[in-house]
Write a structure and sequence with these properties.
Length: about 270
């Protein structure tokens, strides 16, 4: 069993305050921040004084409300321009794949991105397994077959994906209007339910589920995909693996600053 490392409580409190400010309409009043964080106002005030001094936050002219300061802004700018921002989520992904002890929940977890004119896997996390089921990074995935590519393509404008879909279908001896329409109907379903799947698209018996990772602006920055072998791995959109994967995607998107429209952010 891994020993929990000792940390510094003050740093955790500051993190809780900053997260509370992210999830509250700003500038925020002390009593609203107390309600959001669960930290008593007297303790909050002491921390806010120190955060003011470091530039993490700033105070309104009438001293009644708080907002992010210049230091927080600079941190946000730096993080936004980091092309490997999802690498910050690596511990969460490793923890998730480590918890997949049942065969019906998958054997490998991967991160896929849309690069150039297609989707590819850029990172893999695997359970202990005698069979390697991951694909090589850089291999372009099919936008009509791969769960990862379909998930990412569904979030792109049709003018970008239509020629790719048509070309891929034609390369496989299809390409009629009805077949193209069927793919875009599937894309609409993916957007509606927040997850995509594939059954044996790359290898017979190899199934996949994929869900989006959103950033603070609401853009899809990656797809989180779990793979497993049939008949053990249940890749249905209503299965337990799909539920857990969607919860993971929502949790990690929240850590990147994304808030669904229902929570007040457009």
């Amino acid at each position: 069993m891994q020993t929990r490392q000792q940390g510094v409580e003050a740093a955790q409190v500051v993190g809780t305050i900053l997260e509370g400010m992210l999830n509250t309409s700003r500038p925020v009043r002390l009593k609203d921040l107390e309600k959001q964080t669960g930290i008593a106002s007297a303790k909050l005030h002491r921390y806010l004084v120190s955060m003011l001094r470091t530039g993490l936050i700033t105070k309104s002219v009438d001293a009644s409300r708080y907002d992010f300061g210049l230091l927080a802004y600079r941190i946000g700018q730096s993080a936004t321009h980091n092309p490997d921002v999802w690498e910050l989520l690596k511990p969460d992904l490793e923890d998730f794949i480590g918890q997949l002890q049942d065969e019906d929940l998958g054997q490998a977890l991967g991160i896929g991105r849309w690069i150039g004119t297609g989707a590819t896997m850029v990172k893999w996390f695997e359970r202990d397994s005698p069979l390697s089921i991951r694909s090589n990074p850089g291999v372009q995935l099919g936008v009509t077959t791969s769960a990862t590519a379909k998930l990412l393509a569904a979030h792109l404008p049709p003018e970008v994906t239509h020629p790719l879909v048509l070309r891929e279908l034609q390369d496989n001896g299809r390409g009629s209007n009805a077949q193209v329409k069927k793919i875009f109907s599937e894309y609409a379903q993916i957007l509606d339910c927040g997850i995509a799947n594939s059954m044996g698209a790359r290898r017979t018996g190899l199934n996949a589920l994929s869900t989006p990772l959103f950033d603070s602006s609401g853009q899809v920055v990656a797809a989180i995909t779990v793979l497993g072998m049939a008949p053990h791995f249940n890749a249905s959109l209503e299965g337990r693996a799909a539920t857990l994967l969607k919860q993971l995607g929502q949790s990690l998107s929240g850590k990147l600053g994304f808030q669904p429209p229902s929570l007040g952010r457009p």
